[in-house]
Amino acid sequence: MNSSSTSKVKTVRPAKRPVNRKSLLLTTIIGTLLLLGALILFMCIEKVPQGYQAVIYSVTGVKDQTKPAGWHIISPLDKAVHYPIRTQTKEYQNLNVATSDGKNLDMDISVNYHVDPTKVVKIFNKFGNADIEGLENGFLRTRVLDGLRQSVAKYSVIETFGVKTSEIKKATLDELQNNLTDQGFIVEDIAISSPKADAATQAAIDERVKANQELERAKTDRAIAEQNAAKKKIEAKGQAEANEILDKSLTNKIIKKQMIDKWDGKQPITIGGEGVIVDVNK
């Protein structure tokens, strides 16, 4: 009986609740909107690093109002280009230049500069959305090379390696400042390394340096000899003048007085073999 009654018991399962499709759809829409809003907000945030000024632009043009360092909210359709307004150092290596006597040299130059914050919009209008690295490797490099070439071209290879290095630096710095300041780039200072020449040019330079050293040594020796001769001439002239003055001053009275001063008191004084006596009292 128990077995038959057990077999007749049926398992009752709870009925499934109908899915609320409207609620699910609403949740999905809200989640999508929140995600889209977060994405748009992220796209609207613009961080300008310290020491930079940002120019904001879009397809409609550039904004006159720039952005300083910090966090800013901009339109998701806007973009930004950052320009450094504090000192930057850019090194250019192996710039080829020619001296006044036709020798080709390679020189390295280091440029300290910053962008004028009042002219960042002008820079953008001229160069578009090119970043500062692109400007350094393009526009600025060309100007630096031109300025260095013009300065070195005034001097010979020997002067470039030696006595005219300070003049070359000053002329290059002046040239860069004159050409770049109005463009919005303030060149603060430059450093120029020693020129590098090929083997043939270096050998020629060494020979000319040696010849110049020998010439300077010869000039120095000649100057010393001339000075010694002039000194001896002056000494001889002085001695002659002294003798002339002494001759004119030796009167008979002076000579007689000198003889008296040197007389030892013994009389008579015999001079010569014939017994001639000199009476000093006369």
From TrEMBL:
Record-linked Gene3D superfamilies: Band 7 domain (3.30.479.30)
Domain of life: Bacteria
Annotated coiled-coil segments of the chain: 201-235
SUPFAM superfamilies: Band 7/SPFH domain
UniProt keyword Ribosomal protein, yes or no: no
CC per GO annotation: membrane
CDD domains (alphabetical): SPFH_prohibitin
Transmembrane segments: 23-43
InterPro entries: Band_7, Band_7/SPFH_dom_sf, Prohibitin
Alphabetic keyword roster: Coiled coil, Membrane, Transmembrane, Transmembrane helix
Domain Band: 43-209
Protein name from the UniProt record: Prohibitin family protein
Source species taxonomy: Bacteria, Bacillati, Bacillota, Bacilli, Bacillales
